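Reviewer 2 asked us to include a model.

Predict the structure of this chain.
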Amino acid sequence: MSRADRRPETGGRPLDADGLRRRTRELLAAHLPRDTDRLAFLQARFDAGLAWVHFPEGLGGLGAPRSLQAVVDAELEAAGAPDNDPRRIGIGLGMAAPTILLYGTEEQKRRFLRPLWTGEEVWCQLFSEPGAGSDLAALGTRAVRDGTGDWVVDGQKVWTSSAHLARWAILIARTDPGLPKHQGITYFLCDMTDPGVEVRPLRQITGEAEFNEVFLTGVRIPDSHRLGEAGDGWRVAQTTLMNERVSIGGMRLPREGGMIGPVARTWRERPQLRTHDLHRRLLELWVEAEVARLTAERLRQQLVAGQPGPEGSGMKLAFARLNQEISGLEVELRGEEGLLYDDWTMRRPELVDFTGRDAGYRYLRSKGNSIEGGTSEVLLNIVAERVLGLPAEPRTDKDVAWKDLAR
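Predicted model (structure tokens):
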């Protein structure tokens, strides 16, 4: 029997918190963290169904309620067990995995989910293009079926986080230009090591190049790496985008976690920097940050019942605005010191570390928060139309074939 075919013995009883604690302790007893290689421990955790407990059995889960993941995580943290470094593999965990789970074939799920979760294979997202960023449906990257059944892809993608680290990418490309722009798009899983994939760094205002542009020239993708039906890529991509916005704006944080933490610490530790106006603004932002944190917790609880909806767009909007306002306040609070910046060296980091860097970095890097993961302008439209039910903006290109659109 293969690893993926093994099923846990439940005796017909639904798993509860006590059952998950018992399973976690059994994992720890069989694979002592201090004596087990990190990757080997993560692989054993996945095989035990304790990676993401709400996933199906054999795919890193046990079909348990999503809310019970916290029970497993608490037991493992108390035992000093290694985690899978979620910040480094966030695109795979937060975007690729839920999309593969919903639309992938059984073969695709068993091939990709385990190394994705353990971090053996890093993922990136090939969606945005130079001419189709905010208007993603206008993308022009082409995928054409050849005589062998493979797809041949040509085009350019941009603002691609972690492309310089990634083995795999989630990719959307136009497969039928004769249809309107939201149709005729297909979703693929692209091997970033294949011939024709070129990754170039994009240096940002921080001096780093965590983003990239990716050129695709005659890249061959087998049809077995198509996710969902041909031409149904826009619908598949919506799953990715909704999960992306929840993963960005709905992160689990403790009180004073995230950007508000360093500002609050500076305020307490350096009373000589305080002014009445800064105090008022800090109180307002502290309250807003706490409201956003609690709202994100409620949103995660709603996820227990199903897939994320457009509410995640509202959370991502709040995340971007708060980060920019809080980081601006921090620079003002620190005065001349806030204008300092630690390192302009050009490098290609593995992750974004907001709280581990200085105030200057936070101020500069937060400018990207209103662009990445969907621009704030696009998200305002989503909230207006899909959450508040307001009339949609007139769109003259909605029923026009993509090939006939002015570009």
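Residues 62 and 338 are 49 Å apart (CA to CA). Residues 1-12 have pLDDT under 50 and may be disordered. We have added this to the supplementary material.
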